Amino acid sequence: MKKIGVITDSHSGITQRQAEELGILVLPMPFYFNDECYYEDVSLSREEFFEKLDSGVKIATSQPSPTEVMKLWDKGLQQFEQIVYIPISSGLSGSCATALGLALEEPYFGKVFVVDNGRVSTPLHRSVLDALELAEEGYSAQEIKKMLEENRDKMVIYVGVETLEHLKQGGRVSQASAALGTVLNIKPVLKFDVGTLDAFKKCHGFAKARRAMIEAMQHDLETTFREWAQKGEVYLLAASSASPEVTEDWLAEIKEAFPGMDVMCDALSLGVSCHIGQGGLGIGCSCRPKRR
To answer: Which of 31, 37, 105, 152 is most buried by a 10 A CB count?
Structure first.
């Protein structure tokens, strides 16, 4: 039996197949379409999700039940002595707080360590990889939890939105603002920073939104994350809910703007995509956790 295992949820963008390759477990997020429950990457594919989203079917996101969380933890504890569980940011979902409470109870106390480091999508994926690296280096589950949480603010991601329809449905913009924005071809850029998703900039046209995100990322690497960038300890990240062709073009644009830097790109998790819709693009970074 291995000493430390890592579990996350599908908000990380890690598929069940990728999880198997990494040797981790991923808790699939539930979605309700007209009150019928589906599970991300288990009973609901990306293609089916976007078909339903675009058809106007009523969609609702939901937290996983405590029973589902504990069932996966039990499976993990059959393989590992201790678990590092890294769920979606507590600033975006109550599922993290639920997990923190469950981890204080038997039989999980001292065996499951829940990380609340404010991540979702590709930054959450990067945290999983960080946890695996730290475990390989010999750190304990408790130490990994602390190091990832100390690294909480060493991350940012910008997301450009192609359509305002889903932000309107989610209540993030008013119906009037969405209608006006559509007429004026306004494409908002959102900023995900330390656990919350907020408006960052409004751009006329998506080409300008893409440029604005790259410029914001360049500025952050020259200022906020300068120390880590100079040491080569910044991971450049990207995410997309757009077509493969648009995603490839976006990656090429990023690589041209940041020569010599590797870029890890994921399909934007469905939990974020339901608010963004199709055509969304993101860029961000995450810093390597400081070793003790």
So the answer is: 31
Residue carrying structure tokens 């200022």: 223
Cβ burial, residue 104 (10 Å; 0-12/13-18/19+): exposed
CA–CA dist 173, 81 (Å, integer): 46
Q: ∠ at Cα 217 (211, 221), nearest 5°?
A: 145
Q: From the CB of residue 257, how many other CB atoms can be counted at a distance below 10 Å?
A: 16
| Angle, helices 121-136/141-150, rounded to nearest 10 degrees | 140
- Give how far Cα 170 sits from Cα of 28, 40, 242, 256, Å: 21, 19, 20, 34
Mean pLDDT (the chain) is 89
CB atoms within 10 A of CB 68: 15
pLDDT at 90 over 60: yes
pLDDT attached to residue 168: 43
H runs (alpha helix) in the chain: 16-22, 46-54, 66-77, 95-102, 121-136, 141-150, 165-169, 175-183, 206-222, 226-230, 244-257, 270-276
Q: Kindly state the average pLDDT of the residues 152-161.
A: 92
Closest CA to 91 of 193, 238, 201: 193
The secondary structure of residue 11, as a DSSP letter, is G
Give the bridge partners for 240, in sequence order: 267, 281
Report yes or no on whether pTM surpasses 0.85: yes
Element (H, E) at 61: strand 59-61
